[in-house]
Every structure is written in structure tokens, then in C-alpha cells.
Amino acid sequence: MTPDEYCRQKAAASGSSFYYSFLFLPEEKRRGITALYAFCREVDDVVDDCTDTAIARTKLAWWRNEVAAMYRGEPQHPVTRALAALLSRFNLPEERLHEIIAGMEMDLDRNRYSNFEALKLYCHRVASVVGLLSAEIFGYGDRRTRAERLRAATPDLIAIIGGAGVLLVWSGIVESYISQYHQPVLAYDVKIAFGLVESTALWLFLFLGGRR
């Protein structure tokens, strides 16, 4: 099994509709986003599947070392081998992948947050960072003039991706909280209502942010 085949299998096994949306992308971008998604699934599964936090921490530490090895040109795992083959094509900073691992580790440390700043950091690591890496794979215009355009657009771009990441994590938190008291999971009309609230909140976030 090749590294790309492993990543496709890992992504498909998750049962997420994300995998099927990847199929419509050009081949190189499809390979990139599938490998990134497989990486996220690998480190997320460490936390979800390990009941012993000490073992989970050991496995996450292994992934940190594996990411570092990938950027040295010495990847061992099929996922990092697939990502390594794409580093020359896509700008995927090493520190971003480490941030994702740090976000997974936060799940081992706590399941609630006493202030919004701490929760925002968690949302950034487990959602917004993935969005920033995905943007590098999907592309966002003519790279010959990227430096000039990014100097003007970066604050808005980061605000949009960060805001969307926070809202997505919040919706998951709210649904998980309510669903534990009301089985089965939330009805579709309730989910739609939450979606409308999220969309309105995101619109307000972008509108008010653009006025500053």
C-alpha cells in the first residue's frame, strides 16, 4: 500500500462527507488535502481511542517527533511520507502541524475552560489551524503577487478563518452537551436553527470586524 492509498483509506474510514468532497479536486490538491485530513484523523484518534492518558501523551509525543523527522526528510509513517512528497508544492509550516498536536493534547488536560481566551486558543489549534493549512493547499490566487496582497489581506483572512473555526467548534460543543441529555442526537430542525444562529453570528463577526 502506498502512502497516498493509506491516506485515502484513513480518510474514507472516518465516514465523513469531507472525503467525498475531496474527490472533485484536481489530483495534486486532492492528494494534499487527503494527506492533511489523514494526519488530523491520526492524532485525533490518539485522544479518542486511548483511555490511558499517559499512553495518549506518549503517542502524541511520537507524532511530534515524526513531524520533525518529516521536515528533516526522514518520515516513517505513511501519512508523513505522503505529506513530505507535497512540501515542495504547498507551504505547510511545521509549527502549524505541531499546533494541531498541541490542540489534541489540550483534550487530555481538560474538558472545560474557565475563560474565553483559553477556549479560543483551543478552537484555534483544533480548527482554525487546519483551515489555514487547507487554504495553502486549495490556493488563493496568483502566487507571483501573493506577498503584496497578503500584507493587506492577511488580517481579514485570519479573522475569517479563525472566526469560522471558533463557530464550528462551538456548535460541536453545544450539540454534544445537549445530545447527552436528549437521545438520539439533535433533530434536524434544531440543527438547522443552530446553523442559522451560527450564520448570523459569523455575519455579525465579519461585519463588525470590517468596520474597525
Low-pLDDT residue intervals, each spanning 5 or more residues: 181-186
Mean pLDDT metric: 81
CATH C-level class of the largest domain? Mainly Alpha
Give the H and E element order: HHHHHHHHH
Could you say what the CATH topology of the largest domain is called?
Farnesyl Diphosphate Synthase
Shape: globular
Name given to the CATH homologous superfamily of the largest domain = Farnesyl Diphosphate Synthase
Q: Helical residue percent? A: over 70%
Number of helices: 9
Instruction: Return the domain count.
Output: 2
| Straight-line distance between termini | 52 Å
Extended strand count: 0
Give the percentage of residues in beta strands.
under 5%
CATH architecture of the largest domain: Orthogonal Bundle
- Judged by helices, strands and strand pairing, the structural class is mainly alpha
User: What's the alpha carbon Rg, rounded to whole Å?
Assistant: 18 Å
Q: Sheet bearing the most strands, described?
A: none
Describe the structure.
- By secondary structure, the chain is an all-alpha fold.
- It has two domains: 1-112, Farnesyl Diphosphate Synthase (Orthogonal Bundle); 140-212.
- It has helices spanning 3-13, 18-22, 27-49, 53-71, 78-84, 94-109, 116-138, 146-179, 188-210.
- 23% of the residues are buried.
Briefly summarize what is shown.
By secondary structure, the chain is mainly α.
What attributes characterize this protein structure?
mainly alpha, 2 domains, 212 residues, Farnesyl Diphosphate Synthase
What is the fold's blueprint, element by element?
Blueprint: H1 3-13, H2 18-22, H3 27-49, H4 53-71, H5 78-84, H6 94-109, H7 116-138, H8 146-179, H9 188-210
Helix pairs in contact: 1-3, 1-5, 3-5, 3-6, 3-7, 4-5, 4-6, 6-7, 7-8, 8-9
